[in-house]
Automatic annotation (TrEMBL):
PROSITE patterns: HTH_ARAC_FAMILY_1, HTH_ARAC_FAMILY_2, RESPONSE_REGULATORY. Residues 3-119 form the Response regulatory domain. GO terms for molecular function: DNA-binding transcription factor activity; sequence-specific DNA binding. This is Response regulator. It comes from the Bacteria. GO terms for cellular component: cytoplasm. Residues 406-504 form the HTH araC/xylS-type domain. Keywords: Cytoplasm, DNA-binding, Phosphoprotein, Transcription, Transcription regulation, Two-component regulatory system. CDD domains: REC_YesN-like. InterPro entries: CheY-like_superfamily, Homeodomain-like_sf, HptR, HTH_AraC, HTH_AraC-typ_CS, Sig_transdc_resp-reg_receiver, Tscrpt_reg_AraC-type_HTH.
Amino acid sequence: MMKVVVVDDERMIRLGIKAMIERKFTETDIMLASDGKEALELCRNHPIDLVITDIKMPHMDGIQLIENLQGIETPPFVIILSGYDDFSYAKQAIQFQVMDYLLKPVDRNELFALINKAKGKLDAKLSLQKDEDEYLVNQLNYMLLNPKMNEEKVEEAVQKFQLHQYSSGFYAGIFQWKSNQSTRPKDNFFQHIVKQVQKYDDVSLCFVDSYENLVVFTECLEGLHAVFEDNPFDIADHIGVGMSDKHVSMGKLVEAYEQANEALAYQFIFPHQKILTYEQVKAKKEDSTMVNKPLIQKIFNMLGTNRNDEIRLSLVNIFNIEVMKECKISCLEELNDAINRDLFDQAFNQIGMESIEVFKLYDKVGDMSNFENVYDYFYAVENLTIRLHEYMKEMKSVYAGENILDKAIEFIHENAHKDLNMAVVSNYVSLNYSYFSHAFKDYTGNNFVDYLKKVRIEKAKKLLTDSNHKIFEVSERVGFGNSKQFSRVFRDLEGVSPKEYREKLYTERTFS
């Protein structure tokens, strides 16, 4: 919405121009001022896009107003109102790059043309500003992630981008969105954070980095903490924060960012702590004993046995949260790798690839970054381990009683002509669908679909040999939906079509 200030010491002229603009441009916010002093105050307190001002006014005339507007950080576009006898003033205004002027009495069409001109200039200005902002953010992200950026090169980049020099020192803070439960978009939280920070430090540098986190460089530590005070968004429930040490040299900008990122990573272990500082985490120790490989191997060995409680207790011992809190986050990452390699990968290699379709959770559990905190990760590991354990127990019971599979095969042979599928057969023998799928393939050497095709084709060969049924009748009698599908499967398995097979049999009988 375009914001406009109309300035004239004659009330009726102000109201008349306001009415003309509002009738034509409904998406316009118009404020009125009776002199330059009043208008200047409005422009200082509000982001104004366009000022339409008379020249001759008491207290502060239009020329003085225009001159003072140049001192505002983002000066508005200006259209001056003048009579024929004010031309010398209009010429004086030109040096302040006034956009245009209108002669009194104001012609509505001329006014509308200049409003449109102002809107075009404003759109172009906003577009340019957006492009410049995007360019700066892209360059900053490149700088922060470029391993070749030493202090000297960072200093050069700070000069090039004309960033504010924090002479008294600065901190880096990184705000990470860590919740998908809020009905408010992430952008709302980030916008609120920026406003809170800039109340304390109006020269703070705020932007979103390549990881979609909000980065703040500020010289005022209070602003980072104030984000959590008197906020309407329950920010502490949805945002994690990592904060660097204080740095004086602007060449330390990248180092400060890396420190804040390292601190932020520990939100995974300390999910209830609002802000984690680099000072708190830099002394964490490397502890190779946290990755208890023998115990992980022991859990794998117990899968499929009756030692359910011991498996759960072993998992609790591996995930000793109090020990984790004293260690570097890299130790937990090593534990994640060891669990994947020595527990889950071994289990899936043993029970077969088909089971991966059953346990979709495996893809998620394999990467602990899929979880908000170590507690959620532990419960997921425990859940998948127990499911694997139960699966392997069931498989052992199946292999211990192979008569279950013999019963299933007998059922398939007796009912192959019907609309048969694996769910029907697994229900018949009272076996879980997934367990049955794996056990059946392991027992017969074929998956269910291929085995059923072979059974049907064998029955079809017998009918083609011992009866005069037409091809489509044979197809129906052995359970195929249509004769084309029957012929295709028959050719795939036997190398010839059903018709060719029958003709070959007839020829052999004739000449035998």
